[in-house]
Design brief:
- This protein has 140 residues and is α+β, with helices and mostly antiparallel strands.
- The protein is built from 4 helices and 6 strands; from the N terminus they run αβαββαβββα.
- The protein has a single domain, classed as Archaeosine Trna-guanine Transglycosylase, Chain: A, domain 4.
- Strands 2-5-4-3-1-6 form a 6-stranded mixed beta sheet.
- The chain is globular, with a radius of gyration of 14 Å.
């Protein structure tokens, strides 16, 4: 896990002050394990800071014939990352969108099932509590 104050971060998650963003697999996996440093979107964000990564339940056409991708966790929280910028150009093999949310300090968490939504969204309080507890346990 990156050098982060996890106790403070868990407190902010528990307070419900950190938004979530649904991302289709395999992209959350690439963020946490393959150095994907940008999340591509058709819309910009002025938001900066931590967000909760939700792996959407929907599957892309690419996934349907790939057993490894089909086995990736879906339908819940799978980690966190920090947005440090929103760009229209970037020297990254992962950038291909109209806008790119530049990511740092990403770390995975075990799947915490919950519903997603379009755009940035707030998790229910009970899910925030589960995510915060998971962060605290992972930081030990």
């Amino acid at each position: 896990m990156p050098d982060v104050d996890y106790i403070s971060l868990a407190r902010r998650v528990a307070d419900g002050s950190i938004r979530s963003l649904s991302i289709k697999q395999p992209y959350p996996h690439h963020i946490f394990h393959d150095g994907k440093d940008v999340e591509n979107r058709d819309w910009p964000t002025k938001g900066r800071g931590w967000f909760i990564v939700h792996a959407s339940i929907s599957k892309s056409e690419i996934d349907k014939d790939d057993e490894l991708q089909m086995a990736m966790p879906r339908g819940g929280v799978v980690g966190m990352a920090r947005i440090v910028d929103c760009v229209t150009q970037m020297q990254s093999n992962w950038f291909f969108g109209r806008y790119g949310f530049v990511l740092r300090d990403a770390f995975p968490l075990p799947l915490i099932p919950c519903r997603g939504a379009l755009g940035f969204f707030m998790l229910p309080p009970e899910t925030c509590a589960d995510v915060a507890d998971t962060i605290r346990r992972a930081a030990r």
